Amino acid sequence: MSKMDGLRAMREARYADAQARAAGPGAPKAPRPRPVQVAAPTSGDAPTPEVESQPEVEALCGHRAISGRTCTREAGHAAKSHRYA
Fold it and tell me: Global pTM?
């Protein structure tokens, strides 16, 4: 069997498998494991962790370049050019 015959056989087998799945009643998918939720301590004696206040961040321009980079200048900047990072 040549290389092309092997590739053709694999392609036909994949096609037949896809057709069987599409025509079938739809086999049930394996259930996804649900994320484990950790219960918070309910006792009143436990100290609550304090949330650190984050410094207020200036809103950025957010202009997107073709390459996918975003402008890092402040929102509404007066400069004609953008600084991408």
Answer: 0.31
